[in-house]
Structure formats: C-alpha cells, structure tokens
Amino acid sequence: MHTAIVSNRGARRWDAGHPWIYRSDVIERPATDAGAVRVVDQRGKPLGIALWSPRSEISLRLIERDVDATLDATWWRHKLEHVIARRAGLDAEANAYRLVHGEGDGLPSLIVDRYDRWLVVQLMSAGLEHFRTEIVGALRDIARPQGILARNDASLRVKEGLATEVELLDGEVPDEIEVHEHGVRYLAAPWRGQKTGAFLDQRENRALVGRVARGRALDCFSYHGSFALHLARRADHVTALDASAHALTRAEENFRRNGLDNGTFVEANAFEYLKARERDRTRFDTIVLDPPAFAKTRPALAAGLRGYKEINLRAMRLLAPGGLLFTASCSYHLTKPLFLEMLEAAAADSGRRVVLRELRGQPVDHPEVLTIPETGYIKGALLEATDG
C-alpha cells in the first residue's frame, strides 16, 4: 500500500475526530491512483488508512486506524455488518431507512438506503469507488436484496473526477417502491426521485407531526405529500402546497393510496401563498415548513437566512391561537445556533408569543457525529403560538 505524508495540521484534524484531510495538508502525495493509502505524519508516525482521491479537494478520508489492515472483501463485510446491525428494530415502524450514513458510520462518502427489498447506494468519492466490487458483494451477502441501484448522479462526484450516472449494480430495482412509514404508505422513485428516491431523513419528524396535528393544516413545500399524509390522519383538512404540479399529482395519488379524502392540493409559490393568506386573515391550526435548502453554499447563507426568516414569520402570523408550527432546515451552513436565532427574530417580528416545544434533528439511522459537523444537517423545531 502506498503512503501519504500529511502536515501536523492534517494530523491534528484526525486526532480531533474529523476524518477529512484536505489537499493543502498533503505534504507528499502517494504515487498511486484512487484507492486506499497508508497515512503518516511528518515524523513518520503511522496515523491510519485513508481513502485517497487524487483530484478532490478532500484528498484523504480516514477509514481505518489500523495501518496493518487490508481493505479486502472480508474487511468490508465485517465493517458493513457492524454498521447495519445498529439499525436493528427500525423495520418495525418502516420498511425504508438508511443503512449506511457515510462519515456518520465511519464509512466516508458511502450512502446506502434500504427501500423494502431493494438497496440504493451512492459512492461519493474516487477512493471509495475503487472498492465498488467489494462493497456490492458485502451488501448482497448481508442484506440479501433483490436488487442494488447506484444513484451516482450527485454533482459531488464531478469534483472527484467521477462520472455522474444512475446504474443498476445487481439484480433488478423497480421504478417505484411502496414505502410503509409509521402507518402511512407512499411511493418512492429510486431511479429518478429526490436523493435516493425519497426523503428518509425526515421520517421521525413526519411521525411527530402526525401525532400532534389538529384542525386545519397546511403543508408547505409538500413535494409528494409525505408530511401531508401524516397530518391528514389527525387533522380535519390538509392543504398540500408545492410549486410543482407534477409533485402534487403524486401527492394526490399517495392520498388515495392511504384512503384519505381530506386533502386539497395547491400549486403555488409558498412565499406568495402565505402573504395572500395573511391578507385574507386565514388561520391554520397546524403548519409544516420543510423547504429545500435556501443556503446551499456559505456565500448564500445571508440570503438564505432572510428567506428562512421571512417564511417562518409568515407562518407564525397564520397560526390560530394555540396553533402548532413544525419548521425545518436542511441547509448545512445554517447551524443550529443560527437556526434558533432566526426563529427568535421571526417570532419577535411576528408579534406572536411563540413557545418552543421541542427541538428536532435527524433519525437514528442518520447519525450525527459531534466532531464531524457535516454529518448533521437537519434542524427542526416544534413551535406553539400561545397567545389569543
């Protein structure tokens, strides 16, 4: 195995619990293509084994502390068995969940999602791509899926010098898969849907909303209606709002799949819709705000914060007395402290007395490692308007 020499700063990064070493901290590059390399510091002290991506800004990703280990088929099987065992019991409430959460599970740049009897994977670095055969073989042996699909169409792969494509790796995977989630059913689209086919990272937050929903409900940025479906089981009526007519058609199909007839589906811009409802003094008992990332990059954070504040302010003003708002952000660059500061500012400007009932994050199958901020991106809050 070839060796990379890293700076003291890079070595300290690993010591502090973060698995990435950037190109600027690689003093001597290994003379090999993408794959696994041993890493030593400037004094020659062994640090571990990393996935090596020659063209990436993130050059080294720690994957094994034992420098004598061999990343063969047996190693991958043992590692994946251990990670997947942590998901034991999740299938009691859902048939779709994450089996491997990349750096959060000590397997950098690897995503594996289960959808019933099928798996969808993402190999997000050149170093990891080198082990595709071993990974697919281990997943086949451990999970016994009917098919494995690679959703390698994420733009991050371009930075790794990799092709972006959707590719069947094993068996067969259907165009649509019915997901069962806390008593709700909906269709995931592994070949062409968002992420790997559905938004699995909000599963437990959807269940929370379903438990507390009441009265007249509004689901903004509804997409295929996964929050709206949970709302509809307890609320009197749900308005599912989205800018995409196609997404709302799927939401209507999902309502019919669950035998629900208390939904209205509105194609509109969420900001404009909320402004209009404020003008006509409409009130909702339950509102969900789960927008797309408004701040996908650090330079976009200031504008993103303004967007998050405005839409939360509008929603707060629409709450009926005692009304509930579940609001979330999936923007990694919007940190938890900034998220709470934004909600505080929105509440102050709304003129309402807003109580924080619960802070929320990611489900257990999306582990957030405290020393790796990138593993955690979902921030959520359940709020209540307690004024009259």
Q: Can you characterise this structure?
A:
This protein has 388 residues and is of the alpha/beta class. It has three domains: 3-64, Roll (Archaeosine Trna-guanine Transglycosylase, Chain: A, domain 4); 73-177, RNA methyltransferase domain (HRMD) like (Transcription Regulator spoIIAA); 199-385, 3-Layer(aba) Sandwich (Rossmann fold). Helix content is 29%, strand content 30%. It has eleven helices and 20 strands. It has helices spanning 8-15, 73-85, 126-129, 132-143, 156-159, 203-212, 226-232, 245-257, 270-279, 301-318, 336-350, and strands at 3-6, 20-22, 26-28, 35-40, 46-52, 58-64, 96-101, 110-115, 118-123, 147-152, 165-171, 177-181, 184-188, 216-220, 237-242, 263-267, 284-289, 319-329, 354-360, 379-385. The strands form four sheets. The chain has a seven-stranded mixed sheet with strand order 16-15-14-17-18-20-19, sandwiched between helices. It has a six-stranded mixed sheet with strand order 2-6-5-4-1-3. Strand 5 (46-52) and strand 6 form a beta hairpin. The longest helix is centred in the C-terminal third of the chain and has 18 residues, at 301-318. The protein is globular and about 70 Å long.
